[in-house]
Amino acid sequence: FPVASPVTYENGWQEGHGIVWNCSHTGWRLSGNLPLALGDICSFTVRLPQHPPISVLVGVVRWVRGEDVGIETLAMEGKSQAHLGKYIRERMKEL
Asked: Pairing relation of β-strands 54-65 and 27-32?
């Protein structure tokens, strides 16, 4: 689903800030000030509109296009999964 929400992400000991442009149960598209490369492992926290923060504990970069990266979700906390599910259900009702 298209979204423009702030994100803080980490790769090793480095922290970056940017925007999540798309989200789903299995993946995310984001851009930010900390470059990521294909295969990088990262974690991040995103603030979707009118929802508690969602934390992805482990994600892997599956593609890179310019400043945008596609990250596959590998592990999330249960609460974050529930919040993301609620957000997606709400967005589906808008369609």
From this structure: unpaired
3-state secondary structure at position 93: helix
DSSP letter for each residue of 19-79 = EEEEE-SSEEEEEESS---TT-EEEEEE--TTS--EEEEEEEEEEEETTEEEEEEEEE-HH
- Side chain identity, residue 92: M
Residue by residue, pLDDT tens for the chain (95 residues) are 899 999 999 999 999 999 999 999 999 999 999 999 999 999 999 999 889 999 999 999 999 999 999 999 999 999 999 999 999 999 888 77
Q: Which residue has the tokens 């090793």?
A: 12
pTM: 0.92
